[in-house]
Amino acid sequence: MSSTSERLRFCFFTSFAPGGAPGVMWDSPASRTFNYLDLDDWIALAKELERAKFDAFFWADHSSVHDVYRGTWETAVREAVQFPLGDPFTLSSALASSTQDLGFAFSANIIQDHPYTFARRLSTLDHLTKGRIAWNIVTSWQPSAWANLGRNVMGSHSERYLEAEEYLTVLYKLLEGSWEDGAVVRDMANRVYADVSKVRKINHIGHFYAVPGVHTNEPSPQRMPVLFQAGSSDVGRTFAARHAEAMFLAGTNARGVRAALDDMRRRLAGAGREASDLLPFLGQKFVVGSTEEEAKRKDREFEEYLSSETMLAFGSSTMGVDLSTVDVDTPIGELETQAVQGQFKALAEAAPDKSFTFRDVVMRMFSGRLVGTPEQIADAMQEWHDLGVKGINLGMVRGWDDIYDITQHVVPVLQARGLMQTDYSHGTFREKMFAGTPSDEGARINHRHPAARYRRHPAQPEGACWDGPGGDPLP
Amino acid sequence: MSSTSERLRFCFFTSFAPGGAPGVMWDSPASRTFNYLDLDDWIALAKELERAKFDAFFWADHSSVHDVYRGTWETAVREAVQFPLGDPFTLSSALASSTQDLGFAFSANIIQDHPYTFARRLSTLDHLTKGRIAWNIVTSWQPSAWANLGRNVMGSHSERYLEAEEYLTVLYKLLEGSWEDGAVVRDMANRVYADVSKVRKINHIGHFYAVPGVHTNEPSPQRMPVLFQAGSSDVGRTFAARHAEAMFLAGTNARGVRAALDDMRRRLAGAGREASDLLPFLGQKFVVGSTEEEAKRKDREFEEYLSSETMLAFGSSTMGVDLSTVDVDTPIGELETQAVQGQFKALAEAAPDKSFTFRDVVMRMFSGRLVGTPEQIADAMQEWHDLGVKGINLGMVRGWDDIYDITQHVVPVLQARGLMQTDYSHGTFREKMFAGTPSDEGARINHRHPAARYRRHPAQPEGACWDGPGGDPLP
């Protein structure tokens, strides 16, 4: 056990779907205790997470159905692969009054809401939760989501990031720039609710959006919610370095994680931000037993439940390749050369050796988990911590009962080692996340973040600096 | 006191804004007890409404700022005229766990959300509230809302209703048609969550929207939430007769209300629906005193607080005419003939006599209220009831304390007369609203409603009947 200067942050990562995340079987004995459509069950889970001092609930999301595998949604619908899928923003609001400190981090892609509407919803929920929300920025990678939302052709990877850049700019202008500090005066004697001279149009005219403003809400505790992002491509990492306050790191071993951390530090410096301005998170799943034997037994039960069809449907959709078009049951070493080139090359290279089949690789990629005693799991967390990881997105494996295994058996060990908080810090989710770090500047977004450049100052005439396309303010 | 065969339904009508509705002063002593940004205050109010057996909270909404008067939002921002304005859908969700029976009726205009996204949110919230939601359909009448949402030119009145018609068609297909009854099987032994043959695309291709589907959510208790609408124009009333299950009636006197009721009965028959399929609501505001003297004293206090500038800003926006361009302080009888023609003609005709100024007319139009003892107020409700009105949308006058005046003093009198329920009926909001009426068919929308025509039957091949523009199914 080593002393730790900075705790790890822990989010409980799931989906608003039967069983939760894909691969967590809605039909496992543990899942049968939980009905994802029942608010009372979610409230009980939120209270347990708060009791254990988790930082946040975190919901993955998409806005269509996993329909790439075999060119159909059949597997997704039959086996409930992250489907049906409720809206996590709405669930976050429904949970607001049942907890006091737990954060709510929801994914939402930029094509499902116009930024003017989305800004209004963010402000509303940040008020109602007293500043406990985070948004995971997603650029939507599903062609069927684009089609359903009236966008006939999905933008290319880089086009989607261009649009996301402008989407964020509109949000920054509305949330940070439309209402100056001190605009709300609530002067009852003179019947002045807000000082008109401090409330302004944003006059955004860009490539994707034209939004005159004004923002419909008075400033909420955080103004801009805490921003999460998960970029693994070059353009995605650059985007994260510019905009994210927390991000999911790709990487499953120490070498890969160290490389990703080094890479992000360089990119942050390039974006004029400090390394401490961005909290790198790793995704992790645990199977816990009071002995190693018990953990392994539980894991074997999980193996029996796990459906590789579910994983092929999920993997096809998230990787954008139809895994039914390749032989998934022959060892990669025995496949024709052309079968492991092109779109399947990266997947073939992810195989530890050539005796693996594509099915094996997908299973390994999407159902990896740590199996062991609370002490063994804490040892692994310590290693990530010492590498520079700042938070863990903790996923379920066997079903909803997993979380009680973790809160009751793993959390006390993590807390005893100083790896997990034993109480919440004061204030908003941003204050809690950055408390004790060099980047802590209170409830509002850090001054080095690009959103901060849209803050209004009394000297700026209305619209004077935001008229150009792209919308960067003049220096 | 007369016996009543059918109770009145009561919604508490407000906005998610300082003070609530326009004209309810955020700076009145009663308002000072309530912070519209504090969820705890809303929860306390919801619990009080449920204790008193109100049917629902009802939030008006718009998605911009009242900026027609003087061509600026200055009055709206300074005097907090329904601004700033939180999102009532988000608030509905935040209140879901604090009550068991109270309904949540929120306004939402059709330009702020794509119907595919909106359908997902409706299903999510209907699940989380166990079927307690209603949607008030709004076509957005604010040019600045259109501009902010990337729609440069606001559609004409009839174009907006055409778009609303198609918007609803997409929702009906998604919510009623995409998942057949019995599609969700949750067969754990065979790992079948849903029967793929009963989950279908909607293949909507219309003038405004193209939505392939599938709907992202399994069917919620009500599927389609209860539909409210407030159409006063010819096209609006026709729309309401076709789609609404409850509507706001225009009319402030018995003659006008009777005429509106007769007109709606004719239109309902033309739409193939029964008169009992639509519940007509009236908006009403009360100032209550234990004696007539006390009520009048309270009303004089209200008069002192009331700002006619607030009313001119609100009236200009909702009527789409800038009241700063006309002389609002000269009696209408003394104005030039041309000043009372054109866009101001209807307002001039609303004056009881020609000694009224436009300011007087606007004040009368938007701050009308009943002033009296609980018994006097119950007498007035009895009259509406006997005319055929089925529900009251109850607005505040003096501020948040009004509601306690009403729940503590007026509600017991209404209940004693059989005008208000003394307990909730079983089931969803739709079941509660229609319990004991000839139109009660349970949680799902009535079979005569156009939405019912999109219900799937096993014999229909996928997409076979929904391929045409406009999307009506074949007979």
Q: What is the topological layout?
A:
Two copies of one chain form a homodimer.
Chain A: E1 9-14, H1 39-51, E2 56-59, H2 74-79, H3 88-95, E3 103-109, H4 115-128, E4 133-138, H5 143-148, H6 157-177, E5 184-187, E6 192-194, E7 204-205, E8 210-211, E9 226-229, H7 234-243, E10 246-248, H8 254-270, E11 279-288, H9 292-305, H10 308-319, H11 345-349, H12 358-366, E12 370-372, H13 374-387, E13 391-395, H14 401-416, H15 429-434
Parallel strand pairs in A: 1-2, 1-13, 2-3, 3-4, 4-9, 9-10, 10-11, 11-12, 11-13
Antiparallel strand pairs in A: 5-6, 7-8
How would you describe this protein?
2 copies of one chain form a homodimer. Chain A is 36% helix and 12% strand. Chain A is built from 15 helices and 13 strands. The first copy, chain A, has helices spanning 39-51, 74-79, 88-95, 115-128, 143-148, 157-177, 234-243, 254-270, 292-305, 308-319, 345-349, 358-366, 374-387, 401-416, 429-434, and strands spanning 9-14, 56-59, 103-109, 133-138, 184-187, 192-194, 204-205, 210-211, 226-229, 246-248, 279-288, 370-372, 391-395. Chain A has an 8-stranded parallel β-barrel, surrounded by 6 helices. In chain A, strands 5-6 form a two-stranded antiparallel ribbon. In chain A, helix 4 packs across helix 6, helix 6 (157-177) packs parallel to helix 7 (234-243) and helix 10 crosses helix 12. The longest helix of chain A has 21 residues, at 157-177. The termini of chain A are far apart. Chains A and B meet through helix 1, helix 2, helix 3, helix 4 and helix 5 of A and helix 1, helix 2, helix 3, helix 4 and helix 5 of B.
